[in-house]
Amino acid sequence: MVLRKTGYLTKEELVNSKCYPSEERFKKGPVAIIECTEEIPCNPCELACKFKAIKIGKPITNIPILDENLCTGCGLCIAKCPGLAIFTVDKTYSDKEGLISFPYEYLPLPVTGSIVKAVNREGKVVSSGKVIKVLNNESLDRTPVVTIAIPKEKLDEVRGIKRLESKDLK
Amino acid sequence: MIKKEVVIIGGGPSGLSAAVEAAKRGAKVLVVDENLRAGGQLFKQIHKFFGSSAHRAGIRGIDIASELLEEARECGVEVWLNSVVVGLFKEKKIAIKKKLSDDSEKLEIIQAKKIVIATGASENAVRFKGWTLPGVMGAGAAQTMINVNRVLPGKRILMIGSGNVGLIVSYQLMQAGAEVVGVIEAAPQIGGYGVHAAKIRRAGVPIYTSHTILEARGDKGVEEAVVCEVNDNWEPIRGTEKVFKVDTITIAAGLKPLIELAMMHDCKCSFIPQLGGWVPLHDENMESTNPGIYLVGDVAGVEEANTALEEGRLAGTAIAEALKYISLEDAGKLKKEIWQRLNELRMGPFGEARMLAKNNISARCKI
Lengths: 170, 367
What we know:
The complex is a heterodimer of chains A (170) and B (367). Helix content of chain A is 11%, strand content 28%. By secondary structure, chain A is mainly β. In chain A, the strands form two sheets. Chain A has a seven-stranded antiparallel β-sheet with strand order 1-4-5-8-7-6-9, with no helix packed on it. Chain B is α/β, with parallel strands linked by helices and 367 residues long. Helix content of chain B is 30%, strand content 26%. Chain A binds chain B through residues 3-9, 35-44, 46-48, 58-61, 80, 82-85, 105-107, 119-124, 141-143, 159-160, 162-163, and chain B through 47-53, 57-60, 174-175, 188-190, 193-205, 207, 209, 306, 344-351.
C-alpha cells in the first residue's frame, strides 16, 4: 500500500478499501469519512457514535466500517479518534462551496470568519478556506474541531489547514 | 532489614497497574521509583491513547497516569520517590538508596515475598559523525523537554526514525512550536501507524524512506544534518546527499529493555529482536525463571503502554493469587480476561511478530 511509503492515503485507496462514502450519500448532506485502513488495536470511534454507524466489533484490530445511511455527519467521532483520522464533509453547503471539519490540536486556534490556507493530505496548500466554526468544549478533551468552507471540487482532497502562527491572528 | 510483602521496582504504567491490582485484593505493596513522581513515561504522553474503549482508550496518557496514581493511593499502595534500587540479591533482597524527607539519603535493605521488576526500557543510540554535538538527542529526551519541562529543544528539527515514537514526537514537537523539517527512515517503508504518519504529512512534514543520517555538522552545536539514500543492503548511496539546516536532531531508533536488575538475580534472558533485544524469560503469569520475581512492561519486551498496563494487571493478579488473597478460581477467571485483551492488542500487522515472540517466551520458560 502506498500509505506505508508516502505516509498518506489517496482518495482512490480509500474508495478501494470501501472506506469512502458514495456520491449519492454526499448529496444527502454531511457525512463522516474514516481514513483508517490499517488493522491497529483501537476502537473508541465505535463507542463515540450515538447512531451506531461505526462498526469495529471483535477483535478490536478490525478496520472501522461506516454505515453511511446511519451516519448523520454530526461529527462527534472526530475528536474521539486517537489517530485524528476522522473528518466530516458536507457537499451540500452551498452551490459552490462545501464544508470540511477536522481535528486541530495546535495553537493558536483559527478564528471564526477568518481566511485560512486549506491543505491536502500531503500538507500542500490547494485552496483558501473560510473558518465557519471552531469547537473546543470539554467533551472534545482538548481536541478542537475546526470547520472550514472551501470550493466544492476540493472537498475530497482538503484535510486540514496550514498551521497558524501568532502573527497570523493580528 | 525491612520486610515487605510486595515490592515493585518502577512506577510506570505496568508497575502501577501491578501495584493497584495486587493491593486492591489485600496485598501490602511498596512501589519504588527513582523519579520525583511516579507515572513513568505516561506523563509525557499528551496524546489520546489507542486501544479498547473498555480500557481507557481515547484518554490521554497524562490523564491515565493521574487516574492510576489516585487508584494506587486509594488502595493503600506505599510509594518511595526519588529512591533508586541499586541492587537485587539472592533471597529477594533489594538494596535501595532511599531519599529521606530532609533530602538526605539512606541505604535500605528490604526483603520481599514478591518482587515485580518494572524498570522499562532505554532509547537506542545511532552513531554517526558528529553525533556527540549538543543538539543530537533521543526522541524521548526531546519529548520529556517539551511535555514535562516545557522547554523547546530547538526550532528546526530533523527526526531519525519513523516508528510510532518518531511520528508521535514529531507531531508533539510541532504542537510545542518547533518546525520539523523531515523524518528519515532507513527502511523502505514507514515503521509506525499510517494515521500517525498522515497526521504529520498533512502538517507538511516529508518522510524520507530508504534514507539514513551521515553526519551532524556544527561548531558548538548542531547547525546542519547530512542525510543520503540507502540501497537494498542499507548502504549509503554516494551522490544522493541532502543537507538540512537544523539546530536539533532527534533519534527514535527503538528501545531496549532495562534488564540489569533482572540479571543481578540470575533471571534467564534470551535475545529476541522483535522485543528490543535481551529479554528476561517469563511465563503466562509474568513470573521470571526465579520464582517470586515478576517482570512487566517494556523490561519484559518492548511494546506499548496498553500492553504494559495489562501485563501489570496480570502480574498483580498472579501475586494476589500466590499470596492467597484471591482464590485459584477467581484468579484464573481474571487472568483469562486479561489474556484475551492482551491477545487482541497484539493482533494485526503491527502486533503479530510481538505476539509470536511473547508466546514463544512463555513456552520456553516451562522447559
